[in-house]
Amino acid sequence: MSVHEIEVTINGKKYKEQVESRLLLSDFLRETCGLTGTHVGCEHGVCGACTIHLNGSAVRSCLIFAVQADGQEITTVEGLGEDGQLTPLQKNFIECHGLQCGFCTPGILMSATDYLQKNPNPSVQEIKEMLSGHLCRCTGYVGIIEAIQKTVEENSNHVRVER
Amino acid sequence: MKPVKFDYYSPKTVDEALTLLEEAGFDGKIIAGGQSLVPIMNMRLSSPECLIDINQLHDLQFIEFDSDKVKIGALTRQAEVERSDVVQKHLGLLSEAVPFIGHVQTRNRGTFGGSLVHADPTAEIPLSLMALGGTLHIASKEEVREVNVEDFFITYLTTDIMPNEMLTEIHIPIEQERNGYSFYEISRRHGDFALVASACQLTIDHLDRITNVRLVLGGVEATPLLIEGANEWMNGEVLSDSLLQKVEDIVDEMVDPESDIHATAEYRRHLSKKLAVRTVKSAYERARGEANERS
Ligand SMILES: Cc1cc2nc3c(=O)[nH]c(=O)nc-3n(C[C@@H](O)[C@H](O)[C@H](O)COP(=O)(O)OP(=O)(O)OC[C@H]3O[C@@H](n4cnc5c(N)ncnc54)[C@H](O)[C@@H]3O)c2cc1C
Ligand code: FES
Ligand code: FES
After folding, report:
1. Is residue B91 included in any domain, yes or no?
2. pLDDT value of residue A1
3. Cβ contact (<8 Å) for A67 and B34?
């Protein structure tokens, strides 16, 4: 069988589509679903531009076939904010100059969002290691690291205030 | 679309997967994390006619403590191994080695078993397993057989697994005596494949004399290189400068690395010697309890 019907939940919405088995999830998101926020650079797992959440974990969508996502839950950069509002991390990318051309940004946002959920208080070294899975040819990474650090600080202040 | 056309199956049980493998014969290929297979399919360096996806075989996704060993299911994600308390407590070498594999995002998907079957000569998991020792459970329609890790790797990207077989689980013995471990690698950038990597697991007696040592180098041959015979000249010895010099000399004799665009053979030889010494030294110090905490 090389054509399959799949049902995938993307950003909370159900998509039912026919896909060829060799269709990459990245191409499915962009071309079949029109969700072009997920970018495609190298298509062999190195650049990180295509990173999405599959069942809550940041993974490369260029290394998964769309058919493998049948019955799974996906979040793309379009699904990060709610009601047209950016997340604090997204706002900090703007404030700290965490992006220039923006090609790498969706992937990095997806990775950093997942990472901060699992590691709420990372060191700069740990942030850098997480970012090693992403190529940015514009910023030199400094602004990106600052945006992530700022989010970490705000989150911990927030926790303190709540206590 | 990048890869060539293929048929796709997503079996729900191990039995179903094995039947599909048997039927597909040489045309079939298992896909686990896809972190090595999909890149080469996208580049059309590989064009399997039939892909058997084992991601729904949740029975193969576990880490289990069992008195004198730890069992790890082939489909366990590398990130799960990295975060596992059982692994941290009993197989410290793996906890230290796994974070060197690719990136957080590839470890979230890549599997423990997939790395072993892919058998890249610099890969961290094959190297660590060789130092820890253990058995691989390999299933086909007919039988389940057990293979010692020493007999598993045949050559570059080639293992003892046949096209109709599947790796199901890996059993790794837990060291009962005073022991220490260490893993080092040098790569061009964090997350890149290692130029050379070194893993060591050793045990010592109450007088700090070495009782067993397994030193393994990666990136210097087609398969992880276990420095055989090391026990003969290291057992009964306390660590000394002359012993470390001997480690360096023996490694120099045993390795025969190749040059490529990443590093010259000469540089790899240099790294092999220095990393071997460094791993033996820090494994020994750990065993003596001088460095219980990871730095
Ligand atoms: C950017 C990037 C960087 C990387 N860096 C490193 C690195 O530094 N070190 C490293 O070791 N790896 C690295 N890798 C590869 C690693 O991520 C892979 O996860 C691993 O090599 C293969 O595991 P997998 O589960 O992804 O297997 P797959 O890609 O799905 O499969 C690999 C091979 O194993 C076979 N296979 C898989 N599971 C089984 C099974 N249970 N039984 C029988 N056959 C099976 C498949 O048929 C295939 O031939 C990197 C990958 C990427 C994309
Ligand atoms: S496009 Fe997927 S990692 Fe580069
Ligand atoms: S902002 Fe241009 S590549 Fe990162």
Report:
1. yes
2. 63
3. no
